[in-house]
Amino acid sequence: MPAACYSLIIMIKRALFLLLLSSAGLVSAAQLTDMETRWLTAGSAVLAYAKQELKLPVDITVQPQARANDVPLALGFQDGRCKLVLSMRGNPKAEDILAGVPADQQPLMIEAMIAHEIGHCWRYAQGVWHVLPAGFEERVQASPEQVEAQAQALRETRREEGFADLVALAWTQQRHPQQYGAVAAWMRQVRQPSPSVVAGSHSTLAWLQLAPTGAVFDRGQPLFEQAAGLWRQGLLQED
């Protein structure tokens, strides 16, 4: 990409970022660290889409001090609103997830992560959090009640993570089609469980494998419907 074009893109993103910060519920730019500013700038187009076009109830919360085991970026829900929480201050692992990603591609991966969180917010705002789509029934296991409750919670979380991952890929295909392969490969790498670890709540490869290229998304549909079609296919393959 020519340097002039890249500089223009950065200027546009910063303008969007400042516009977002002027909205109610967002922190002041003067209160942010360089890392927080860089992440929010990278995700500014997603956040603008969520707030201005979808009218999603999104606030940004910055933790003054990360706690042990805090992930750098997460989404919570409070009083009917989505809280995008940044836990980067004092977090030595804040950018470990970007290890090995070339510097010029890191904004793309951050943008995909924020699109993932907006996928969660959309599900919450629609009132379908942890709800299966029409036509699907929960399979009840013959196991002790406590064990089944834990297994059910794991399944519900994994399903939401799978949906949000597909939203991130649909967003990438819509906004950065030429970079889709790089983002999809990185997401598969991040979601690949360690050989020594049992697949957990974020093991979403069953869904990611359904989207090896951006061609699987129907751009004639709204963003979340693009993700929902593949998500239903993944539900059929659940263990």
Strand content: 5-15%
Domains, number: 2
Helix content: 40-55%
Give the helix/strand class: mainly alpha
Element string (H = helix, E = strand): HHHEEEHHHHH
How many β-strand stretches?
3
The radius of gyration over CA amounts to 18 Å
User: Regions with pLDDT < 50 over 5+ consecutive residues?
Assistant: 3-12, 22-26
* Distance between the first and last residues' Cα: 44 Å
Strand order of the largest sheet: 1-3-2
Number of helices: 8
Mean of residue pLDDT values: 84
Largest sheet: 3 strands, mixed
**Which descriptor suits the 3D outline?**
globular
Signal peptide: 1-29
Protein name: Peptidase
Keywords: Signal
Topology:
Blueprint: H1 3-21, H2 34-42, H3 44-53, E1 58-62, E2 73-78, E3 81-86, H4 106-125, H5 145-175, H6 180-191, H7 205-208, H8 223-236
Parallel strand pairs: 1-3
Antiparallel strand pairs: 2-3
Organism: Rugamonas rivuli
Keywords: Signal
Signal peptide: 1-29
